């Protein structure tokens, strides 16, 4: 198949080069202008997000705030004294993981993990079925690794959906995202639901001693190695950020006032749900939103995250094909199929050097035969516009947090498939953050080592160790 694609490409290149006809080469730059964001647009967006975050921290404005800024109740960071065995549960998408992590002296760290699938019917079924399935998988994991089912291990629970916490072990689901829509869970304490499911089994004992978002896990994981970590970011299936905030700025915090800081889970994916993004949203964004399981919600996330980037590209391609600006007006059934264009294809296409080898592979998978070189160039340009916009929006959000914290040196822990695998996402972010932050603020981006897994175990480890002061600068 690969040889055939190369031969097809070489033949096409030869015929185009030697063709006596000089057909006009269509450029689509003008058609993609709506996907390009200027610094002026980003600065306006930043001002609105700064207001939204501050509103989320105040008692008076919190009820109507779009960016909720949930208090995580995580006030203590890893300091190297964590010891023992800990379980971690990482639920944030169609697959979830169970991990066994052991920490010891001299930074000893050993991890075992298994991946379990959440079947499609459970993702949109009853909430009790979801937690029964999770409890079943936990019991299988305990049995597989010969753990004592009657000696409960501390477990950190990463729950990567909008969560309003009322304590370290109490968190209420605000809304489902990422394609989940289980009944009977919204506005319920998910820790209680998990504990009840475990109790119903009567074959395993587990001590859930901390619930967290994947961004909190990321900040904990990176802080274990770099205590300068002050922000946690996820750019994967979803997009969200957390940061370390001074207690005096968090009016809704009712925890330990003797400690100076607490991690805030911004849930910034909802930014723009009040219309503040309308000036930069395209017709493609509106179509994705209207056709989603949660129309009108998570509009910022829908312009950024891996769950939607591929579909944005597909909608642009279909639109241009209908207007006969791609593939001579011919389009395959695959390209017409919702969500058929995977976000990973964007990374593949942008990884091409000069011969469109990967682009040809992707287009072949999408049922596009014999694309012209102009078509290949145009497809790459569409992908570049969508991924660059995503990186710029994330950068604007991070710049808001950096400028608000106003600390002169900050490490940002980052995790997620888009950031991890896109060939240029990191550099796009670095350059754009520099242009949007105060000139005296220095920052670096640190790739998290399994934030949602290791981070969950670290939350459990910190929760059971002797409480030590939060590190200060």
UniProtKB/TrEMBL annotation:
PROSITE patterns in UniProt: HEXOKINASE_1, HEXOKINASE_2
Annotated Hexokinase N-terminal domain residues: 29-224
E.C. number(s) listed in UniProt: 2.7.1.-
Catalytic function, reaction form: D-glucose + ATP = D-glucose 6-phosphate + ADP + H(+); D-fructose + ATP = D-fructose 6-phosphate + ADP + H(+); D-mannose + ATP = D-mannose 6-phosphate + ADP + H(+); a D-hexose + ATP = a D-hexose 6-phosphate + ADP + H(+)
Cellular-component GO terms for this entry: cytosol; mitochondrion
GO terms (BP aspect): glucose metabolic process; glycolytic process; intracellular glucose homeostasis
Keywords: ATP-binding, Glycolysis, Kinase, Nucleotide-binding, Transferase
UniProt xrefs under Gene3D superfamilies: 3.30.420.40, 3.40.367.20
Involved pathway(s): Carbohydrate metabolism; hexose metabolism; Carbohydrate degradation; glycolysis; D-glyceraldehyde 3-phosphate and glycerone phosphate from D-glucose: step 1/4
GO molecular function: ATP binding; D-glucose binding; fructokinase activity; glucokinase activity
Segments forming domain Hexokinase C-terminal: 230-462
InterPro entries, sorted: ATPase_NBD, Hexokinase, Hexokinase_BS, Hexokinase_C, Hexokinase_N
Function: Catalyzes the phosphorylation of various hexoses to hexose 6-phosphate.
Homology family: Belongs to the hexokinase family.
Protein name as catalogued: Phosphotransferase
Recorded name of the encoding gene: LOC112685284
């Amino acid at each position: 198949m690969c040889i055939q694609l190369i031969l097809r490409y070489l033949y096409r290149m030869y015929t185009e080069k030697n063709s006596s006809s000089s057909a006009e080469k269509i450029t689509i730059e003008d058609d993609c202008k709506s996907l390009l964001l200027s610094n002026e647009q980003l600065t306006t967006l930043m001002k609105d997000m700064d207001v939204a975050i501050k509103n989320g921290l105040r008692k008076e404005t919190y009820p109507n705030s779009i960016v909720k800024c949930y208090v995580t109740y995580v006030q203590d960071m890893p300091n190297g004294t964590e010891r023992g065995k800990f379980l971690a549960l990482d639920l944030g998408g169609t697959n979830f993981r169970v991990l066994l992590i052991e920490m010891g002296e001299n930074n000893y760290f050993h991890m075992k993990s298994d991946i379990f699938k959440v079947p499609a019917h459970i993702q949109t079924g009853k909430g009790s079925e979801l937690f029964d399935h999770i409890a079943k998988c936990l019991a299988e994991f305990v049995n597989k690794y010969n753990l004592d089912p009657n000696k409960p291990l501390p477990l950190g629970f990463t729950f990567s959906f909008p969560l309003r916490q009322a304590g370290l072990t109490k968190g209420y689901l605000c809304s489902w995202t990422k394609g989940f829509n289980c009944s009977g869970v919204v506005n319920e304490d998910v820790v209680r639901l998990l504990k009840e499911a475990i109790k119903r089994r009567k074959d395993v004992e587990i001590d859930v001693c901390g619930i967290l978002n994947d961004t909190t896990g990321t900040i904990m994981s990176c802080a274990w190695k770099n205590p300068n970590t002050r922000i946690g970011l996820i750019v994967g299936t979803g997009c969200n950020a957390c940061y370390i905030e001074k207690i005096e700025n968090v009016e809704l915090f009712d925890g330990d006032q003797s400690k100076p800081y607490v991690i805030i889970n911004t849930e910034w994916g909802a930014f723009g749900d009040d219309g503040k993004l309308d000036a930069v949203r395209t017709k493609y964004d509106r179509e994705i939103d209207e056709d989603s399981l949660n129309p009108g919600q998570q509009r910022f996330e829908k312009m950024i995250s891996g769950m939607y980037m591929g579909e944005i590209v597909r909608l642009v391609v279909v639109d241009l094909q209908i207007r006969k600006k791609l593939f001579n007006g011919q389009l395959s059934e695959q390209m017409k199929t919702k969500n058929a264009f995977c976000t990973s294809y964007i990374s593949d296409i942008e990884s091409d050097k000069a011969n469109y080898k990967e682009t040809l592979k992707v287009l072949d998978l999408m049922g596009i035969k014999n694309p012209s070189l102009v078509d290949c160039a145009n497809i790459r340009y569409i992908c570049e516009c969508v991924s660059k916009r995503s990186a710029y929006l994330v950068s604007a959000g991070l710049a808001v947090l950096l400028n608000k914290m106003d600390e002169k040196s900050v490490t940002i822990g980052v995790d997620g498939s888009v950031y991890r695998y896109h060939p240029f996402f990191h550099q796009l972010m670095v350059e754009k953050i520099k242009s949007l932050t105060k000139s005296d603020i220095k920052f670096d981006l640190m790739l998290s080592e399994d934030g949602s897994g290791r981070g969950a175990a670290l939350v459990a480890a910190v929760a059971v160790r002797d409480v030590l002061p939060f590190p200060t600068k």
